[in-house]
């Protein structure tokens, strides 16, 4: 008997099994070149079906060598256009032609192929698709109740992330390195399960990368050329929470149910953002809200009443369009990363859908700042009115975001009033930040002292604006010290003072009125005297004259100071810390970030001082 298998039965390994059972003893198996071309293309694109089929073809060759069957490769090889049109039946048609030409029986587990072949009078044997009992995956042996993720790589010892939320350790889960055969076995098992298990699916399949969801595990399998070796990363949630498990639970519940909200859940990787998002989703669903999710990949562990969506046609914007037709009360967007994601989030929020987005951020305010420049500034409070910052598995900070037309904190004149986004601590009502446009730039100003910012944001803004105004009135160097909330000292060259002040003090008065700040004009020589005497902003130190060469900026120092650690300042502002070289000077390589900052200070004729680092 002559047999022609199509791609479906070559992939599932059915032919070699029948040959081994003696069913096709002495028969001739005609393998269409179109099948070879199709499975080769699948293997080249990183699809496991291609690799499975190639292994089956190799097994058939071995059986032919043993004399159990004869093998002949026949027909036309599938071209690129045929492969691209495989879903439309182009390759199936070539396979049917081969069966007719060789008066052979066509074997297939594709019901459409079988019915078309019967209609053309071809002898067909339809084999029901294999249903395999798929149990626990081999890689699950590395999981226990405290394991969050398993990391397997060819040639490496298995590694796991294990521990309680907020106290996770990355540690080995064995002593022997994984060989290629073992990790390939794990990978094939994952992909086979994802394709055939009712509780699993393939989320993404690209050349070199497959991402599958198997029960509660998200599993990524990478292969060369995408990665330099075969690697498997399996992640699963180690804890499921409810809103009652978090700080501010009562207030947050009331806030979420009062009206549809725009919420950003922020935190560092592994902080527990998605776990909190799951708790929010289930809480909202339990309180008579229609809740959907937008995820890529879909790995939130939510109840069946919450429908999980991924990209539609490769675009989240299409998913959003579909959701707007469904009109959910709330949508959980996990994760919001790229500009397109923020735009989709904003569009859905402005359409009236409650939105809860999950974003990476190392500080609570960073979550809001990621919206700046992506959406219109004045729309931010309408898009996001609540920021929840998660740290070590708990709610660390909650911000309330509103807008108000007012004079920003630290500015004085009423004509400086503008729309200001106010970010307040939800628990205390204390203002934490203000975001507004100043000098055509969007600025975020902290309203409380931090160790990271000894000079307040308002002082920096005021200094920039005063410097800009004075610079417009003089051609020489300008230095500015902010001495208080509405007082500044300006230093200019002696021959520029009269020009800056103007006739009868008119010019400086105009500047003071525009900026809402009192300005005292002094000479640069006075600033140098103040600096040397310790009366200015600069700590007492040695004033140096930099030497700029083609390769370095050299700060020569007097005395034997080799090996001393010092700070380099410009008009009292810290630039960098350095160690004095053996030659008694500091050399900074040009082209570095430090050198560029130093060169800018030199170009603006700022006083460069070297101060002992105490």
Automatic annotation (TrEMBL):
The lineage of its organism: Archaea, Methanobacteriati, Methanobacteriota, Stenosarchaea group, Halobacteria. It comes from the Archaea. Pfam families: KH_1 (PF00013), PIN (PF01850), T2SSE (PF00437). PROSITE patterns: KH_TYPE_1. In the N-terminal section; belongs to the PINc/VapC protein family. SUPFAM superfamilies: P-loop containing nucleoside triphosphate hydrolases, PIN domain-like, Prokaryotic type KH domain (KH-domain type II). The keyword RNA-binding applies. Keywords: RNA-binding. Residues 1-115 form the PIN domain. The keyword Mitochondrion does not apply. This is ArNOG04375 family protein (Homolog to PilT-type ATPase). SMART domains: AAA, PINc. One of its GO terms (molecular function) is RNA binding. Gene3D superfamilies: 5'-nuclease, P-loop containing nucleotide triphosphate hydrolases. NCBIfam families: PRK13764.1 (NF010335). Residues 259-384 form the AAA+ ATPase domain. It comes from Halobacterium hubeiense.
